[in-house]
């Protein structure tokens, strides 16, 4: 039988620190979708308060916060923590890595989640997927990028550490600038380019007015996973029911975010094009040079971090098979559809 | 406060009728993943027993079973019920329809789920996504399909009613044959072709030995959604907590199935190729003729079913934007990756 008194007192209250501002409603909103699902499933007996980036701790301080237990969990992009160990990037996105579906496959039915959680254990935490943006756009540029040489000396705002290393190899000068200051820097020309997310998020910041060249694809984020990191001791303290509830709520939030981005991006893209954005593909030469630079950085990481080396090898083996398979049914279908009048 | 005695007695027991045999472990397994998540989240207070196709009722009788309340829910492919009303297909897959990500976007953040549930209400039921296979393969053929004329008179085993109508327009003769008899019929030549799912499921049936030409893409199933249908009265009888648990467990099962197919298909495809399967793309002429035939069938359905007409119009509008958006970042990324040595 169930001991009712224990149950009645068993209200669990957690705090979740997000790395995102509320203005990024799609990605920030993932944590709210998660918390709402937990609340509904537990009948209000498990409450998680969601705190925007900066509210409890700096946006990039959330892993420290989870590690030392000052919050039970956070919602963030693992590659933000590349500086702690390059292996963090593998839990989210590496240049020319997995697309969103392939990432889910590796995480759920390959070795991805297992290997990442072994690594995250060093930080007293475990992970659940907490969203994906789909393949991002390649950023906003004041001038056209016609060849890899155009990256040389280019001051570019970039999100993560790994793409910073690759862009440095290409000759660019990565800049770390808060979201709110990018527009002015592009306008003044103290910044030549900036990458953000995709049409829906980018449109709000109005970059097209000051840097009209909008390139694709965002080859450094083919399917970036956003994560929930949970303090291991806090998770261990949950009942079996609440553990299952957390896991399922993460699945809800994760699939919801990608669907929301996919639903919102097309309209934003059309509006951007209508307001004089020049949407252009990176040239083959630019992609080839970027691929080469990325592989050089990966080799350097192999030498620097045994955790990167082990997990990267597994991801790459899995990716070879995924790319092979996606060449057939999936690509042929999408490619035919892209040419139809619907 | 919580009334503990009520809680202790509040065990809910449901039966789920699957349309699938246990041998299709990936698609049948989706219902087991769902039931397991419900059990874990409810601490065993909500138990759903999963019954393979034929165990409680015929595989295609499951919608009747849910409608009349003889089971609380089922796990099936909506297009199986095309004969009841063509609109069922829109909840799963139509030829040249949405891919799996686009389907999720339409269902979760477009009008998809809302419109489909309005329609399903006529059958006393509501739906949750319960899986996706990703784009399927285009089937096994005893002879090469070089032009649309090769479909003429071809006896082909097909899964659903809508593709049957389209294939009939192309001159083929759709056959309804149980899974277990396909191999022998292909061997004897009483069947010229058969479509099933994709490499992982197909490989088990050994079709490559008797029909070695394996075509792609399965243009009639670009991203077929598998569904949980739930009797409305049974759902209404659940507590708010259990309703939320059912919804989240469906999200778990849904994303798990696609990831599992993606993880398993590549190895199966490689083994099929190694055992003399000839993997070939449908020609442009074949795809063009199939697209034209599909549009004709859709127009006929517009005239036949007001429910089809309303929902199809919404899906198509949504699809136009999706196809536009996927042409940019997503396709460019996948296309570049497909040519790299990894």
TrEMBL record, chains A, B:
Example GO biological process: transmembrane transport
Superkingdom, natural source: Bacteria
Keyword annotations of the record: Metal-binding, Signal
One MF term in the entry's GO annotations: metal ion binding
Example of a GO cellular component annotation carried by this entry: tripartite ATP-independent periplasmic transporter complex
Signal sequence interval, chain numbering: none
Residue positions binding Na(+): 196
This protein's record includes keyword Signal: yes
Record bears the keyword S-adenosyl-L-methionine: no
Binding site for substrate: 136, 157, 195, 221
InterPro entries, alphabetized: DctP_fam, SBP_TakP-like, TakP/all3028, TRAP_DctP_sf
A Pfam entry, by short name: DctP
Name under which the protein is recorded: Alpha-keto acid-binding periplasmic protein TakP
Species, as recorded: Variovorax paradoxus
High-level lineage: Bacteria, Pseudomonadati, Pseudomonadota, Betaproteobacteria, Burkholderiales
């Amino acid at each position: 039988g169930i001991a009712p008194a224990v149950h009645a007192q068993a209200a669990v209250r957690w705090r979740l620190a997000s790395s995102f501002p509320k203005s990024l409603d799609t990605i920030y909103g993932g944590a709210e979708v998660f918390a709402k699902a937990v609340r509904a499933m537990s009948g209000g007996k498990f409450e998680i308060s969601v705190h925007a980036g900066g509210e409890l701790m700096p946006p990039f301080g959330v892993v420290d916060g989870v590690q030392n237990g000052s919050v039970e969990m956070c919602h963030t992009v693992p590659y933000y923590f590349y500086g702690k160990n390059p292996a963090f990037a593998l839990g989210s996105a590496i240049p020319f890595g997995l697309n969103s579906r392939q990432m889910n496959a590796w995480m759920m039915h390959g070795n991805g989640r297992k290997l990442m959680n072994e690594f995250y254990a060093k930080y007293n935490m475990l992970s659940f997927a907490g969203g994906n943006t789909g393949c991002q756009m390649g950023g906003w540029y004041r001038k056209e990028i016609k060849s890899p040489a155009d990256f040389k000396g280019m001051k570019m705002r970039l999100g993560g550490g790994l793409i910073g290393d690759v862009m440095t190899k290409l000759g660019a000068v990565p800049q770390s600038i808060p979201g709110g200051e990018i527009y002015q820097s592009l306008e003044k020309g103290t910044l030549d380019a900036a990458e953000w997310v995709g049409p829906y998020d980018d449109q709000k910041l109005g970059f097209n007015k000051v840097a009209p060249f909008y390139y694709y694809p965002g080859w450094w984020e083919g399917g970036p996973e956003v994560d929930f990191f949970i303090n291991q001791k806090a998770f261990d303290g949950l009942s079996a029911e609440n553990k299952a509830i957390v896991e399922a709520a993460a699945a809800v939030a994760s699939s919801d975010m990608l669907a929301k981005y996919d639903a919102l991006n097309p309209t934003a893209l059309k509006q951007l094009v209508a307001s004089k954005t020049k949407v252009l593909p990176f040239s083959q030469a630019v992609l080839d040079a970027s691929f080469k630079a990325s592989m050089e950085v990966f080799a350097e990481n192999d030498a620097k971090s045994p955790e990167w080396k082990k997990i990267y090898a597994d991801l790459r083996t899995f990716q070879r098979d995924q790319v092979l398979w996606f060449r057939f049914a999936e690509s042929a279908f999408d490619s035919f559809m892209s040419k139809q009048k619907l």
